[in-house]
Amino acid sequence: MNLQFPDGFLWGGAVAANQCEGAYNEDGKGWSTQDVAPEGIKGPITEVPTDNNMKLIGIDFYHRYKEDIKLFAEMGFKVFRTSIAWSRIFPNGDELEPNEQGLQFYDDLFDECHKYGIEPLVTISHYETPLHLSKQYNGWVNRKLIGFYERYARTLFTRYKDKVKYWLTFNEINSILEEPFMSGGIYTPKQDLSKQDLYQAIHHEFVASALAVKIGHELAPNAQIGCMVLSMPTYPLTPNPDDVIATMEYEHKNYFFADVHARGIYPGYMKRYFRENNINIHMEPEDAEILRHTVDFISFSYYVSTCESGASSQLGESEGNLMGRVANPYLKTSEWGWHIDPQGIRYVMNMFYDRYQKPLFVVENGLGAIDKLITNDQGEKTVEDDYRIDYLNDHLVQVAEAIADGVEVIGYTSWGCIDLVSASTAQLKKRYGFIYVDRHDDGSGTLERYRKKSFHWYKDIISSNGQTLQR
Fold it and tell me: Which end of the chain has fewer beta carbons closer than 10 Å to its terminal beta carbon, N or C?
């Protein structure tokens, strides 16, 4: 059977503002939570931005975006996923009026995309809550953030309604379970955060997300607005029913987020969890009606799968994209210990589509690896990243299998289409891109861009609409 991708399939790549833009204090931008997290998700938080934070410069996309968009166009991108830095638009997050310089930057960025026929896919909030909202209000624990986010979203939809068709409300919204500061701007240390406050914060995000869908549909009727979840398919370690039930209960914690976005109500299994853990979600009278504004599509990241066991407390956890569970003995791992499981993307796509019957958008998938810049026989600087080509090829073959299964898929944006600073480790040596950026973890480098071998491979994949993939 030939691999078939639908006509109009949106091929492209993805970045996040806080990992690539830099210019952390230019043109009126305020500080975000990322500006005080120099060591990534596991490291300490600083009071002010420090020189060892690679994200303060990133890859200087803020000043070099025209050069980079041109390279994306050379690959044939149909879509480019990026985020808007909330603190560029509202520096503290709670102002009444937006920062015009920040708005203009994204006007210029989206115009540059359209110049090459590239459709922007925009994440409204991607791991970069304004630091003031985190410290002053304790992030999403405080219901006031709903109003601040609503003003921010309304500003974006009003300004960009004719330039952006595809929107995501929050990036990997379920990651708040593991990383409440990075994902939810919650300043309370994770070990001191109660389940009550955590799930109240999640409720506030749900209401804000649904308000964004409502506002977006009113102001930009042609817009498509999706949620974005971290997907991590979880397999029972054995056929033991204890392992199967443990797997079901673990997956419920992640399905919960897409369930509320796609169905507009809290599922029964979470109501049971709240009862058994003495969690009482405070809801305003209007919240239930707001939540009924459900998303148009489900988007997700996919990097790894994992296993679960009824005896997981006695078993070692695997590494993962924020969430690690029991290691799978049948899978190889990346240099960072992430399990490599191409079939997992087909599995999770079927699970999502069977559950929601809404279109899917694969908005993150890729391999973080240590790349070596060389000079090839033609005298060009490049990276011979066959390992990345193999990884992406095998995953895209499984996306095609899911499409053959009947899953409706809008598009695919590989993560870190140009090298950027890793969210998890705040390193640049963990590279994902088709484009090598000459910057290193010690801050050295020219910031020059070089096409990797995978750049030309992906260009062929796009131009053939997936027909050059190898089974």
Answer: N
Nearest 5°: the CA angle 218, 224, 225 is 80
Q: How many domains does the chain have?
A: 1
Question: Which domain CATH number covers 457?
Answer: 3.20.20.80
Q: Are 107 and 159 contacting, i.e. CB atoms less than 8 angstroms apart?
A: yes
Per-residue burial over 328-343, b = 16 or more CB atoms within 10 Å of its CB, e = otherwise: beebeebebebbbbbe
Residue 50 CA, chain-centre distance (Å), reads: 25
Statement: the pTM of the whole predicted model exceeds 0.90: yes
Contacts made by residues 274-277, CB under 8 angstroms, sequence distance 24+: 274/199, 277/195
Active site residues: 364
- Name the nearest CA neighbour of 229 among 259, 199, 258, 251: 258
Distance of CA 81 to the CA centre of its chain: 9
pLDDT digits (tens, 9 = 90+) for 94-129: 999 999 999 999 999 999 999 999 999 999 999 999
Specify the long-range contacts of residues 102-108, CB closer than 8 Å, at least 24 apart.
102/27, 102/28, 102/29, 103/155, 103/159, 105/27, 105/62, 106/159, 106/160, 107/159, 107/160, 107/163
* 147 found inside a domain: yes
Q: Give the count of beta carbons closer than 10 Å to the beta carbon of residue 118.
A: 21
Residues contacting residue 272 through CB under 8 Å, at least 6 positions apart: none
In a domain, 325, yes or no: no
Query: Helix, strand, coil proportions of the chain in percent (round to 5)?
Result: 40, 15, 40
Query: How far is Cα 220 from Cα 274, in angstroms, rounded to an integer?
Result: 36
Nearest of 435, 430, 429 to residue 417 by alpha carbon? 435
Per the domain annotation, does 315 fall within a domain?
no
Q: Tens digits of per-residue pLDDT, 143-167?
A: 999 999 999 999 999 999 999 999 9
Are 318 and 324 a contacting pair, CB within 8 Å?
yes
> What is the radius of gyration, based on Cα positions, of the chain?
21
Pick from 175, 208, 209: nearest CA to 190: 175
Residue 400 corresponds to which tokens in the numbers above?
């095609």
Distance in angstroms (rounded) separating the CA atoms of residues 441 and 408: 40
Q: Which domain holds residue 187?
A: 10-234+251-305+340-463
Q: Which of 337, 435, 455 is nearest to 389 (CA)?
A: 455
Backbone angles phi, psi at 411, to 5 degrees: -175, -175
Whether the Cβ atoms of residue 413 and residue 363 lie closer than 8 Å to each other: yes
Q: What is the pLDDT of residues 170-224, one digit of tens each?
A: 999 999 999 999 999 999 999 999 999 999 999 999 999 999 999 999 999 999 9
Question: According to the model, what pLDDT value does residue 316 have?
Answer: 54
